[in-house]
Design goal:
By secondary structure, this protein is an alpha+beta fold. The chain folds into 5 domains: 63 residues, no CATH class; 127 residues, Roll (PH-domain like), CATH 2.30.29; 120 residues, Roll (PH-domain like), CATH 2.30.29; 34 residues, no CATH class; 126 residues, PH-domain like. The protein has 10 helices and 22 strands.
Length: 560
C-alpha cells in the first residue's frame, strides 16, 4: 500500500492510516555536516524514509507544465519607457527642505513700556524624514536668549501619536508645538513651487508684525539733554588705548643738585590724564625713580576763590578747576610748565605726529636735536688679585668680583662643546735612574677644562705598580709664577717635546690619530712645528703597519 493513500480525504488519526509493509527505512535525512572543523547545515533533499518531499513534487510539476507552454513571439523593439528606475525617498528628497517664516508672541511682565514681544522664527521641514526644527534669528544686544529653539525632530501633531506632515503646513495657519503657538506668515520660493506641484493651494502671505519696542529702539525719541557720562562713554569707545607720547627735557638746574633730565610724557586721550616717567640711564649716580608724576588730570586754570584754601591739603575737584590741560597745550619745540616744572618737548612718536596732522593741522611740530651726554671715561682695567692659595687663580679672581663665584660663559661653552674630547700621547720618563728606563706613560690633555692626567701602563716583572700617576690638574709651564700663570696648551705638545710636571720630565713619543685630526682642524692656533712632528710620526707608523692607539679600556684612566 502506498503512503499517498493518507491524502485521500482521510483524517490523520489512528485507524485511518495504512502502513506499507514493504517499507523498512523510517529515519530522518541527515542535515548537519562538518567541513574543516566547522558545522554546516543544509536543506534536506528527501523526507522520512527516503520519500520525496512535497515541495519537490510541486516544483517538478510546475516545471513540467511550463515545458509544454510556448511563449508568444513578438517582433519589434522593447519599449524601455515602460520600466522605470526605482529611486528611494532618502535619495530623491535628500537636501530638500521647506522653509516657512513665522512668529510667536511672548508676554512681558513688569514693564511699563511694552505688554508683549513679537519674536520672529524660521521653521525648516526636512522632506527626507519628515523632521522639523525651529530657529530664532539672533539679534545683537537684544538681551534675549536666541538661536535654535527646537532641535531637528518629528513634532507631535496630537495626542494620538500622529506627527506633522508637509501637507499640514500652510501660510496663515497656527502651528502649536510644545505649548507655543507659531503663526506662519510666508515661505520661500522653493517651498511655494513644491507645494503647488503637489496640488496644495497656498494662502496669501501675511506681513510680519512690527515689535513696538524694536521700532522705538531703532527710532529713538529726540532728546535735547545728554545723560550723565555720555561723553565719557563715547570717548572710551573711540579713544581707548590711544596715547600721545612726547620726549622732553626736565630743566631742574635751579635746585641745589639739579640737572637736566630726560623724561617721557604720556597724554591719555580716553580721559585726558597725564603721566610723566623718567628715562633711566645706567651709571648716572642716582637711584632709579621712573615715575615722576602719576597718571592724573592736570589743572591749567584754577578758580580764584579756590586759591584761598591751601591746595596741598586736599585733592582738587572738578568744581574748583576752570580748564584742564588738552592736546593743544603740548606742542613739540616749545616749553610746557606742568605743576611748576618746566619741560622742553623736543620730539614725539609717530602716532602723536599723525594725530596732530589729522586733528590739529594748525599746530606745527618742530623737533629739536638734543645733544648727547659725553661718554664716561674708560674704566681702568681691574688687576687680578694676588693668589690666596685656595683653588685656582681664577677662583681667587671670582671671589673678588662676586660674592658667590660663578663660572664664565666662555668656559661653560667650551665645556659643552668639548665634553669627552681628549688628546692622548704616549710618553716616557726622562730620568737618570736606570730603573725608570722601561716605564711607559699615557698623557691625556682634556679639551673641556685644559687639565692633564698621566696614567702609567703596568709592566711585567718591573717591580713598579702601574696605574694613575697624576690626577686631572692644570699644569703650569716652567718659569711661570702663580701671579702670572701660564698653562700648557695643545700647541705645546709636539712629538719629542718635553713636558715638566712637578719636577718630573716626560718626553712625548707618540699620539693618537685624533690628535692630528684636531690639530689640522685648528691649524691657525697650532704652531707649524707641532703639526709637522705629528704628521711625520703618524706617517712613519702607517708605513711600518703599526696600529694607531685607540681609546681602549686598558689605557684609560681608572676611576678613583
Amino acid at each position: 500500500m502506498s503512503r499517498d493513500w493518507n491524502s485521500h480525504g482521510l483524517p490523520c488519526l489512528p485507524g485511518y492510516s495504512f502502513r506499507d509493509v514493504t517499507k523498512s527505512a523510517f529515519h530522518r535525512p541527515q542535515t548537519l555536516n562538518y567541513s574543516k572543523g566547522y558545522a554546516l547545515a543544509h536543506r534536506p533533499t528527501v523526507g522520512i524514509g527516503q520519500d520525496p518531499l512535497l515541495s519537490e513534487q510541486l516544483i517538478q510539476q510546475e516545471i513540467n507544465e511550463l515545458s509544454f507552454e510556448t511563449p508568444d513571439i513578438t517582433n519589434g523593439s522593447f519599449d524601455q519607457s515602460m520600466v522605470k528606475d526605482f529611486i528611494p525617498a532618502h535619495v530623491a528628497l535628500d537636501k530638500k527642505v521647506l522653509r516657512y517664516y513665522a512668529y510667536f508672541q511672548e508676554n512681558i511682565l513688569f514693564s511699563p513700556e511694552e505688554e508683549s514681544c513679537v519674536r520672529p522664527v524660521v521653521i525648516y521641514y526636512y522632506l527626507e524624514d519628515d523632521s522639523m526644527c525651529i530657529i530664532e534669528p539672533i539679534v545683537e544686544n537684544s538681551g534675549i536668549q536666541q538661536g535654535k529653539r527646537i532641535k531637528r525632530q518629528r513634532l507631535p501633531k496630537n495626542e494620538r501619536g500622529e506627527y506633522f506632515q508637509w501637507r499640514d503646513l500652510n501660510i496663515g495657519m497656527d502651528l502649536e508645538v510644545y505649548g507655543v503657538k507659531y503663526h506662519i506668515t510666508q515661505c520661500d520660493t522653493f517651498t511655494k513651487e513644491f507645494l503647488e506641484s503637489e496640488g496644495i493651494v497656498l494662502n496669501n502671505p501675511e506681513p510680519m508684525p512690527v515689535d513696538s519696542y524694536s521700532k522705538r529702539r531703532k527710532n529713538p525719541q529726540p532728546s535735547f539733554t545728554k545723560a550723565s557720562g555720555f561723553e565719557g562713554m563715547q570717548k572710551f569707545l573711540t579713544m581707548d588705548r590711544q596715547v600721545l607720547q612726547f620726549f622732553a627735557l626736565w630743566d631742574d638746574t635751579d635746585s641745589l643738585f639739579g640737572e637736566t633730565r630726560r623724561v617721557t610724557i604720556q597724554y591719555y586721550l580716553v580721559d585726558d590724564t597725564v603721566e610723566i616717567n623718567e628715562v633711566y640711564e645706567p651709571n648716572n649716580g642716582r637711584f632709579p625713580f621712573p615715575i615722576l608724576l602719576r597718571r592724573q588730570k592736570l589743572p591749567k586754570k584754577i578758580k580764584p576763590e579756590s586759591e584761598t584754601f591751601p591746595s596741598c591739603v586736599l585733592e582738587m575737584s572738578a568744581a574748583e578747576v576752570d580748564e584742564y590741560y588738552s592736546p593743544k597745550d603740548f606742542q613739540v619745540g616749545q616749553t610746557t610748565k606742568l605743576l611748576g616744572r618746566c619741560f622742553l618737548l623736543y620730539d614725539c612718536d609717530g602716532f602723536t605726529k599723525e594725530y596732530y596732522q589729522n586733528n590739529h593741522p594748525d599746530l606745527e611740530l618742530k623737533p629739536i636735536e638734543v645733544p648727547k651726554k659725553p661718554d664716561l671715561p674708560p674704566q681702568r682695567k681691574r688687576e687680578a688679585p694676588p693668589y690666596n692659595g685656595f683653588g685656582s687663580p681664577e677662583d681667587s679672581l671670582k671671589n673678588c668680583l662676586t660674592v658667590i663665584p660663578e663660572p664664565s660663559k666662555n668656559s661653560m661653552l667650551k665645556m659643552l662643546e668639548n665634553e669627552h674630547n681628549a688628546l692622548r700621547y704616549s710618553a716616557r720618563l726622562d730620568s737618570q735612574n736606570p730603573e725608570d728606563q722601561g716605564r711607559c706613560f699615557i698623557l691625556s690633555y682634556f679639551l673641556s677644562d685644559d687639565m692633564i692626567s698621566i696614567y702609567e701602563k703596568p709592566t711585567r716583572n718591573s717591580g713598579i705598580i702601574g696605574g694613575r700617576f697624576l690626577r686631572k690638574k692644570r699644569i703650569l709651564k716652567p718659569g711661570s709664577t702663580v701671579d702670572n700663570p701660564e698653562f700648557y696648551v695643545p700647541g705645546d705638545f709636539a712629538i719629542g717635546a718635553t713636558v715638566e710636571v712637578f719636577s718630573h720630565r716626560f718626553v712625548l713619543t707618540d699620539a693618537d690619530q685624533y690628535v692630528l685630526k684636531y690639530m689640522e682642524s685648528n691649524a691657525s692656533q697650532i704652531p707649524l712645528q707641532t703639526l709637522d712632528s705629528l704628521r711625520q710620526k703618524l706617517s712613519m707608523r702607517t708605513a711600518n703597519n703599526q696600529p694607531a692607539d685607540q681609546n681602549g679600556d686598558d689605557e684609560a684612566e681608572p676611576s678613583s
